[in-house]
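Q: Is it fine to ask for two folds in a single conversation?
A: Yes, each is treated on its own. Send the first.
Q: Here.
A: Result:
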Amino acid sequence: QVQLVESGGGLVQPGGSLRLSCAASGFTFSSSTISWYRQAPAKERELVASITSTGSVTNYADSVKGRFTISRDNARNTVYLQMNGLKPEDTAVYYCMTVVTIRWLGNPIPKPCWGQGTQVTVSS
């Protein structure tokens, strides 16, 4: 059973930092791309950052480039999101996500799997 457990959220002042963690189990973590998404109230969920299986390729939303860093530790089955220079507009629930392949009637089907999310609030 795929499990993604986020932690590290909280309340921080503008300009502050937080490090989110996503602990994974139930799939081949070291072969999987992992992504961080966020969803603010009344807004659609948006991609924040992603990292490939070896960590060699990372991608970021324009709104967080230069402030956020995604990394992973395959020995610990954990992905991190270091967030610096936080702004009120970064306030959201942050989720990690991966896509696993399941078999349905013999056919490979991609299945997105999500964690439960962790709240990040940036406010003075």
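Q: Second one now.
A: Result:
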Amino acid sequence: VQLQASGGGLVQAGGSLRLSCVASGRSVSSYVMGWFRQAPGKEREFVATISWPGRKTQYAVSVKGRFTISRDNTKDTVYLQLNGLKPEDTAVYYCAASSFQTTAIMQTEYSYWGQGTQVTVSS
């Protein structure tokens, strides 16, 4: 499975972005999908995850209510809508795929990773 993340960019605080992650090589329609992020000088952290049917989602406390994860299994694509962006959301965002059954919040639960897309939020 290859994952290609895109949609990052530079945005002012309060703005929005929509990240996309397209899978190739193998369908990820039965995989749990997740987004993680890594800010400069910090460890990579969990952001959001969605079950393979798309009915169950989980979010990090820091983004809950502002970010929304969704998926389109017909396109093997997962999205992350980022609203109300803050400077502390600045990071490289990574998508990942897991063979877990429901949702997964630990990095070790994911087998496949994309290359990351940069999100920069200016104050």
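Q: Anything structural to flag on that second result?
A: Two points. The radius of gyration is 13 Å. The first strand starts at residue 2 and ends at 6.
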